[in-house]
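[Discussion] Sanity-checking designs against the backbone

I'm trying to build intuition for which residues belong where. Below is a structure token string of 150 positions. I'd appreciate it if someone posts a full sequence so I can compare it with mine line by line.
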């Protein structure tokens, strides 16, 4: 387990993740969720600066009932741009953050993934699964049998 303490976010993240523009239609976002089993997708500008994140929860909120519409119109909602529902100013982490600190942050915040930002630009995404793989990798390396020379 000691090895895990030396890992950083950059050791576990998915580099250069799929991201969308603020103008992407919610229909496209839903397709990404379906095809890639994502729970959220970063929203970036042309320079890959992080503007927000759209999660499955954000997409569901677009269908909330209100006083004006008892039954939301599916096709109209799915044509809205991502920026209409995205969570702005999302929490992000740096690639050099120790994974032990990331683990603590994700548990406290109860999030499934976090964007990784360096110099204001999206460089990766790190998810719960990435942390679990890193923990397993650190543990397995220390449980491997030591081969002695004959």
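Best answer:
Here's mine. Compare freely.
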């Amino acid at each position: 387990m000691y090895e895990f303490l030396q890992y950083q976010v950059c050791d576990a993240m998915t580099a250069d993740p799929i991201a969308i523009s603020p103008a992407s239609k919610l229909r496209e976002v839903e397709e990404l969720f379906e095809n890639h089993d994502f729970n959220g997708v970063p929203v970036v500008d042309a320079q890959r600066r992080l503007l927000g994140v759209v999660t499955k929860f954000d997409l569901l909120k677009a269908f909330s009932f209100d006083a004006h519409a008892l039954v939301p119109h599916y096709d109209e909602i799915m044509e809205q741009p991502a920026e209409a529902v995205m969570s702005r100013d999302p929490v992000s982490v740096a690639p050099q953050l120790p994974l032990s600190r990331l683990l603590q942050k994700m548990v406290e915040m109860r999030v499934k993934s976090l964007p990784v930002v360096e110099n204001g630009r999206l460089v990766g995404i790190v998810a719960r699964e990435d942390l679990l793989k890193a923990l397993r990798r650190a543990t397995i390396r220390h449980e491997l049998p030591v081969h002695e020379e004959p």
